[in-house]
Each structure stands twice: as structure tokens, then as C-alpha cells.
Write the C-alpha cells for this entry.
Amino acid sequence: MSRVAKLPISLPKGVEMTVGNDNISVKGPKGTLSVHHLPGVSIVVDNGVANISLNEGADDKFGGTARALLANMVTGVSTGYERKLELVGVGYRVSMTGTTLNLSLGFSHPVTFEAPAGVSIETPTQTEVLIKGADKQVVGQVAAKIRGFRPPEPYKGKGVRYSGEKITLKEAKKA
């Protein structure tokens, strides 16, 4: 069994893990998440600690994956995940109306993005977007989708970027 799979998952106060026949669900203050059983893996929950073990003759490849997925679910329903995006460029603006994100990214038309269920989007300033949710994969996917509307370009660095992302600028063509 891998080193990752051997690590126990401690369940914080208020988080409950239920192991069913075909899926595992984790319930906490931020919501409920569930995942299908991975083949050859069994989960035992006792005294606020979840342990992963492999079934007899099972392949080792799903042990670490199952542990990582469950640990991310526990973190998501207890504290949640967030990604921050920054808009860099003259005239690049963002605003929220209800659950719709309105982006002005230098196109001839405004770009609108509807927030999916389970994800909240905030705009602290006109050039910042804060994406929050319990599911790590969905939060990352929403951030990547918004970034994909206008990724940072390599000559001036204008576009939508992750907070703290370093953009390596290319040198301009010399005449």
C-alpha cells in the first residue's frame, strides 16, 4: 500500500462520513459531498478517524487516490476551498448581478458566466474575483473556465490570471 493511503483521515468536529454500498458521503457545515467506491478499496470509520485499506488481492493503484479524494472532501465540507483571480489590463472589469458574473475583457461584447450550484462567486473589487465552494474540483474548474475567457498573453501580461501567478513575458520583436 502506498504511503499516502496509509495515512489516517481525521474527521473534524461536525463532519460525518458515511460509507454505503456503492458510494461514500461526507457531511459537514459547508454541505454534503459524495464519491463512488473505488475498486479494491475499503474504508473503516471509527472514533472520528477514517482508515483506508486494500481488499485481498486488490491492485494497489487506487489506495492513494481514494485517500486523497476523501481528505479533500473532508476539508471541503469543514473549511471549504477558494481561488482568487485577478484581471490585468486597461478597461478590464468584473461585476456580479445575482449569480451571473459580468466580465468586460476588451472584446466587442461583454462576457457573462453563470455560477454553478455549490459555488459562490464574489467580486471584492472591479479587478478581483473570489470563487468559493466545498468541492475542490468544481472550484478549480470554475476558476479555469473564467481564466480561459482571456488567458494572460505573453507580451504585456494582460488577461485573467490566478492570484500570485507569475507570467514570463517574452521580449518584443526588434525592428
Remarks:
- Residues 72 and 137 are 9 Å apart (CA to CA).
- The mean pLDDT is 92.
- The helical segments are 3-6, 63-78, 136-148.
- The two ends are 60 Å apart (CA to CA).
